[in-house]
Hints:
Layout: E1 6-9, H1 15-21, H2 30-52, H3 60-85, E2 88-89, E3 106-107, H4 109-126, H5 140-154, H6 157-167, E4 192-196, H7 215-221, E5 225-229, H8 231-236, H9 243-247, E6 248-249, E7 259-260, E8 277-281, H10 282-293, H11 297-309, H12 323-334, H13 341-347, H14 351-357, H15 372-377
Antiparallel strand pairs: 1-5, 2-3, 4-8, 6-7
Amino acid sequence: LRSDNTFWDGSGLAQDIVNFDVFNEDSNSLITKDAWANAYQGISRANIVLNRIDDISMDASTKSRITGEALFLRSFFYYNLAVLFGNIPLILSETASADEGFNHQQVAASVVYAQIAADLALAESALPSKASTSNGRISKGAAAALLGKVYLTMGDSSNAESVLRRVLTYGYSLVANYSDLWGVANEYNNESIFEVDFQGGLANQGNSFTNQFHGILSQSVTSGLRNIPEQDLIDAYETGDLRFPASIQGVDGTDTGYTIKFGSVNSFNDDDASNNWPVLRYADVLLMLAESLGETNEAYGFINQVRTRAGLAPIDQSTPGTFEDKLLHERRVELAFENHRWPDLLRMNRAQSVMTAQGKTTRGRLLYAIPLVELELNSNFSQNPGY
């Protein structure tokens, strides 16, 4: 949502979400409060595992796997927090009392990324390979793919290239048809590196996102429409791009009846679908590897693997536009609605210019507001710019 891909049309309870699209949210938002609290709850649970597992008697390979999983999940939570909030508390040990929370200090996002990089390197070495990992478990490939993304965010292209090349050896491949990436029947396909598992009909274990991607469902549960594709995203798809009909359907000029990617293959389950949420997949890795290499023939080769699957002609140095423009374009349409666009714009220093071109005033709010309740509880915290 916080990008140039979609917008919401709603009021009432939906207004809090609409505010994020127009950079009008504040530190009282329940969305940022929940994002912060839920991430730190996950971090706390990971810390408990990491602090106590050495004292537990179990098979060495099982202990190694659980340690790697906890390190990966803690890293994943911290990556999202650093991207969204910037300077945050870095808590690496089990919290013994509530009083500790009043004394935490914020650290620079660069410090957080450095810690994530160290943890993911350990996780990759501790985790099993894709071939010996059951569905839903985290493998070496997931740790390496996230580590590559973190290195790119840190501006370390050399280390990003090295770790992303390892992912190429871990047994992943592009599925033949882009449309076969989506739907319950296609979960854990050859391209899937890490996805969040959901199961409908099991009391709060279902996916609550799917109805937000389905035009008819969204109309049935809200006064407005959810995640409406921006016109310039629709226009960004090249003629003949097979990703368009697999990602956006029913765009008829009235913003009704459309579905986008996940919604296009979902049954009408309101807040209880069985569709998994994709977090990391092989196409993302190929495009990140191209980013780490910069404008080279090899980089275009990785981009063109993705384009060929989409039914498009290859591009090269003679194709109009800068290399970064072409890469960002490819990432936008390949990964549309998968929550990569905003981090991409931030990482490539394009967020401000892209939002301005779309007619939006960011008010300096490229980071989310630190939740007001956290500022009130801890006098050490300072608010992000623009709030």
